[in-house]
Protein: YafY family transcriptional regulator
Organism: Heyndrickxia vini
Amino acid sequence: MKLDRLLAITMILINQRRVQAQELADMFDVSVRTIYRDIDSLNQAGIPIITYQGQNGGIGLIEGYRMDKNVLTRDELGAIKLALKSLSTSYQDAHASAVLEKLKGLSNEQQTLESIFIDFSPWGGNSVLKEKVTMLKKAIESHFCVQFFYSNSLGKESNREVEPHTIVLKGQSWYLYAFCQQKEQFRLFKIARMKDVSILKKEFVRKEVQIEDSPWDKEWYHPKRTTALTLSFKSSDLALMEEMFGVENIITSDNNQPVVTVEMPEDEGMYRFLFSFIDRIEVIKPEHVRQKLKNMLQNMVDLYTEKE
């Protein structure tokens, strides 16, 4: 990530008098041009970095400059460490490791056990997923297209070539938000369903995307993708359902049965969600959803019925 790299470069320049641009480029696996863009960003942020010409030249901080250690409080340093350590559970990032080492030097305090640690990796680990996330992150930073085979929720496989923009952690799963060249629009790809991922030697120009607005949410809940569900449940489960769907969305039917109407994207995830509450929630409508749940139940009965 660029922020990690900028912070690491700053710490390196504080601890070293001068460093070559090529040395920084090799360290962070980016181009020299990218390093000079980073230097411009740091200068604009108020850190006086200059370039020295000649045999002993290089990049360094202006003479006499020192970063005030009070720029970041102890709690702020802790928050940065927590974020970087947590991210390292999902992908390999030498930049983050370098930043953590520099932050230790800034704090000058004995390391203590963190009160909170966030582990994004699945139980038992998943080295293949970690490798894919690491590869996709590299493609995003270098602005290279990516090719892979993708299997959708119905099991249909297709070959995709995309322009990767952002890696997204959503609902405990990792996704790639990318511009799909086949569909000519942005799509959200579940990384676990991607196989034979490869980075192409084909550069792309990043499109303007307001990531902070979570555009994938807007696409996910587009009216063309969603289905209105009317669900009923037992009164004994009222507290659970209020927490799940919101108190304001629950009403009482004519027969005093609590009912809720919600809109959800009709995909495999929706049916898995409903199936997880199969003995506590009844789908009143639409009828085709009721029928599919019946078929799923019958398949389960068949699976567990002894063959005579």
